[in-house]
Every structure is written in C-alpha cells, then in structure tokens.
Design a protein that fits this description.
alpha+beta; about 170 residues; disordered N terminus
Amino acid sequence: RSTIFPYTTLLRSLWAEVHTAFGLFYKRREVFLVENKRSVTVVAALVRKGDKFLIGQRPEGKARAGMWEFIGGKTEPNETNEEALIRECREEIGVTVEVGTLFMDVLHDYPDLFVHLYVYNAKIVEGEPQRLEHQDFRWITPEEIDDVVFCPADVDVLAKIKAEFPAGGAN
C-alpha cells in the first residue's frame, strides 16, 4: 500500500498538468485558464429584505456596463470567498455583511472572460447601501426579475430565486 500512494499522487499531479497544458477546465482557487482565456473566481451577495433582494447596476466604462448584478466581485490571491465578499460589499456599497450559506455557484463563459461565480446568502449587519461603485442599486422582488437586464452569468441564479422565493411573500 505505501508504495502505491506516491505513484497515485504523482499520477494525479501529472493529470492536472496535462489538463492545464491542453487548456481544459482545471479549477484552481484563485485564477485558472480555460481555452487561453483569463478566468476568475467571483463572489456575490444575495441580500434579502422581506420579499426583495438587492442588485446593483454596473457603471459606465466597465464590461457589461448598465447591466444589473448581485453585489460582489473578484477574489484576490490567498483570500477566502467569505473574506472577498465582505471586502467587496464594503468597497461597492459601504456596508458590512455577514456571509451565510452558499446559495449556488455557476460557471459562465463570456467572450472575454471565464467566470466561476459563487453566490452566498448574506445579511447587512452594519450600514446602509450607498452608490460607491455602481451607477444605482435597488431592491427587487422575484416577480420583477424579467423587467431588469442582468449580466448573463446571473441567469441560473435568477431562475433559482424565482423557483425558491414564494411569489409575493416574505422570505
């Protein structure tokens, strides 16, 4: 048994290198490559208030400007998803959040970027949302989702919200 273990570890390592070399999806915590595209890990907050949830409008001059998204952003090297989400909420809307459970994660392939998006349930524990990085922010109900143009990476998250949030009820 002890002689097989080193070979198993070596084979796993070689397999990971082969996948990376051919540009296949090989996930790493911070940044990974898919088909020679820049790839990032992004975290976002699903902040609820009654039957509504918080969204922000991307600013002019950024990719997907004017589209709506959940508050959050890219993780930095050696930063946990939770640490990144707390930092991003402070930077983007000036609030402190308590990060809860993972709501869902999504893989999305934009023309310029490959994103692994983690959306967490979160609760504002200090401050009121302010427009620091977003053009605007608003609280919407699941019924209003179809009236808003969201970033494509959020589509599966929005479908899950529609399916799980009770229509017209508090959550």
